[in-house]
């Protein structure tokens, strides 16, 4: 009876671990998608900055330059660099989150597999105990029927 209870408990634990694994897997997938999105935004920001710098270089190549325009471009370029730095920080944060969620998923997967292994062992052990009891009962019955023993 105790072995059946152990197997039943392991099955319940296995169900919980499987749900935890599924949640961790979904979290890891969302974190990976967030990282991809952050990288895309950063790449778009870098492209915008390159385009702004190319436009500015074209303006600066002209023979006559308005100083107000140069100052405005300088402020725009500085804001663009700050935006790009912020996007880089978001990419790092998203990468850290993805790493943590992936590790949590791997841990949940390992726990779920461990419970599956323990459950299989408990089932085999319970089956062996039942078979040994049946065999002992059979041996006892044969011994009772055999005359002269």
DSSP helical segment count: 2
Q: Gyration radius, to the nearest Å?
A: 34 Å
Element-by-element helix/strand order: HH
Helix-strand category:
mainly alpha
Low-confidence stretches: none
The appropriate CATH architecture is Orthogonal Bundle
Largest sheet: none
Mean pLDDT metric: 88
The name of the CATH topology is Helix Hairpins
Classified by CATH, the class is: Mainly Alpha
Q: How many beta-strand runs? A: 0
* Shape assignment: rod-shaped
Strand content: under 5%
Your description of this structure?
With 149 residues, the chain is mostly helical. It has a single domain (2-145), classed as Helix Hairpins (Orthogonal Bundle), CATH 1.10.287.1700. It contains two helices and no strands. α1 packs antiparallel against α2. The longest helix has 79 residues, at 67-145.
Q: Which features would summarize this protein structure in a list?
A:
149 residues; mainly alpha; Helix Hairpins; 2 helices; 93% helix; 0% strand
The gist of it:
This protein has two helices and no strands.
Give the SSE layout.
Blueprint: H1 2-60, H2 67-145
Helix pairs in contact: 1-2
